[in-house]
Each structure stands twice: as C-alpha cells, then as structure tokens.
Amino acid sequence: VGANGAVRFTAGPNAGYNSITLSTITLNSYTGTGGAAMVLESSSNTVSQCYVYASTGTGIGLFGAYNTVTQSTVAVVVNIYTDAAVYFGTSYNTVSYSFITNSMGYAVQLTGPFNLIDRSSITSTAADLTYDAVFFVGAASNTISDSYIYKLSKTAVRIDADSAGNSILRSTITLESSVGGVALRIASSSNTVSQASIYSPGATGVQIQAAYNTLTQSAVTVSIQSSGDAAVYLDGSRATISQSFITNQLGYALLLPDGANSSFNLIDLSTITSASSVYPALYMGGAATNTISSSYIQGFEAVYIAGSTGTVIGGSVLIATNTSGS
User: Fold this and answer.
1) What CA–CA distances, in Å, run from 70 to 31, 43, 76, 155, 196?
2) Are the C-beta atoms of residues 147 and 169 closer than 8 Å to each other?
3) Spatial CA neighbour of 30 closest among 92, 74, 70, 76
C-alpha cells in the first residue's frame, strides 16, 4: 500500500492469536513519520516466513506482548526518519531466524523489557552518525543471542541510560569503519556480554560508561587504529572483565581514563595485548582501587599507571615488547 500501513492487528478483548505465513507485506512511498508496513498491537500473533518491506517508516512495530516473528526478512530501504526496521514497543516478544536491515536508520529499536532476538542478522548501512544497528532506550532485561550485528559507521549497539539487565550472548558485533565510533556502547548498569566477538577495524570496540557491567568469555579486536582509541574503554565502576581476549593493533587495548568513574573494577583471567609502539596495552589514569588478576598483558609498555591509587596486579604476566618499555 502507499498509505501509512499495510497490516495492523489492533488490540481488543477478542484480538490476538493471528498468523501470517509465506507472505509479502509492502509499504511504499510513505511521506510522514509513524507509518509501518505491519503493526501488532494485540498479543500472541505469529509472523513466519514473510518478507516485510517499507520504503520509509517502520517495517514491523511490536506493541502487543508475546508476538513472534520468525524466519522472516524485514527491510527498510530508504528511511529519512528515525523509524526502525523492527520496533519493540512493549514486552515478551520474540524475533528469531530473521534478517533485519535498514539502509538509513535503526535496524532494531527496543523500548520495552523481556524481549528476545535470537539467531538473527541485524544490519544498518546508515552513514548517518545518529542511528545504531541496535538501540536500547529505556529497555531492561532483553536478550540478544546467537546473532550477527553490523553497522557501517558510528555505533553498532548502543545500550542507553535506563536500560539495565540486558544480555548479549554468543553474538558477533561488527562496526565497519568510524574513527571515534564504538562497536558496543554501554551507558546503563548491570548488562552482560558473554561469548561475544566484537570487531572494529578503526574505532573503539567496547565502551562501558556505567556500573556493574560484565564482559566475559569474549574477544574484542581493533585491527587498524591510529588515533589512540581503546579496544575496551572502561569509564564505569564495579565492572568485571573475565576470560576475555582484548587486542588493539595501534592503540590501547584497555583504557581506564582519568577521573573517578573508573574504580573498583576487576580484570580477571584475560589476555590484553597491543602492538602499538606508542600506547601501552593497559593504561590507568586516576582510576582507583582496580584489580587485575591471573591475566596476560603485552605491549610497548604492558601497564602504565598514572595517579591510580589502590591498584592491585596479582598472578599476572606482564611483557614489554620495546626495550624502553616497562
């Protein structure tokens, strides 16, 4: 259709439990904000093996609970507004085995709790620096598992303030190229990233800006970086980084910046390396009471501590690769 929506399941006492299978749903030439190819306002509906396309606007808007989108493709090809290809507006919805893409905006936006994205491919090729591939905003306790997330520039996954308790499990996050960008930005507390592969050739891999976040059993790689950005930029407190591989070819592998925010963190059972001839593998500047245990750290200078009182390094191997290093 060429209006503001193609399919809409409204809420009501007898609504829900509908199914759309093996269908193509298209929204063309929408000229305002708020349009969607499909809107699910009721609960317990299923969309399976469908192709959902919107030239502008949202692909699928999930405003009811317990809806399922599976084995489907959701594509927004020309989006000049802030709409997402898939918008989670409420809770307990599942998207699985699906391809979600947006050429100019968010691929996925979550504003509700307890949703699941599983075994899906999520991509945004937007060159606009405003939009992320996945954006959590006021969205708690959601899970992304066994998925691939790609963004062309700026930020691939952004967990904004008031978005606590989310999990990213066994997934790959790639930021193609953006000096000053971040593959994964966490600005809320108590989120978990486990068994993830996070890659950015030219920007920060992971930026943590809040307390009680966990990065475990993961690999964070920055391969081409000349600006000194870190593979992991830890500007939050009481975080745990464990059983992880963190590497940067031309910058810091792990950076705890100047200021009081980067305190009471634990780095445990991890490998931290930098091939830079300028930047140390691990830098702490004014970051108090942090602990590094049972880890391997290698770089031009393995560890550089500046004004960081109460730092404990124990049971670890530190290797300086430059004769002037330490």
Assistant:
1) 29, 15, 17, 26, 23
2) no
3) 76
Given the structure tokens 């960081």, which residue do they identify?
Answer: 308
The length of the chain is 326
**Cα–Cα distance, 39 to 35 (Å, whole number):** 9
pLDDT in tens, 201-247: 878 999 999 999 999 999 999 987 656 689 999 999 999 999 999 99
Q: Residue 33 has what pLDDT? A: 55
Give me the pLDDT at residue 81, please: 56
**Residue 290: alpha-carbon gap to chain centroid:** 25
d(CA 156, CA 21): 30
Nearest 5 degrees, angle CA 155-CA 146-CA 225? 35
Per-residue pLDDT, 113: 97
DSSP letter at 15 equals: -
| Lookup: tokens for 37 | 């190819």
Contacts for 14 with CB less than 8 Å, ≥ 6 apart: none
What DSSP line would sit under 241-296, residue for residue? Answer: EES-EEEESSS-SEEE-SSSSS-S-EEES-EEEE--SSS-SEEEES--S-EEES-E
* Average pLDDT along the chain: 90
Amino acid at 214: T
3-state helix, strand, coil in the chain (%, to 5): 0, 45, 55
CA 193, 92, 27, 121: dihedral to nearest 10 degrees? 30
Angle at 21 (CA atoms; ends 17, 22), nearest 5 degrees: 175
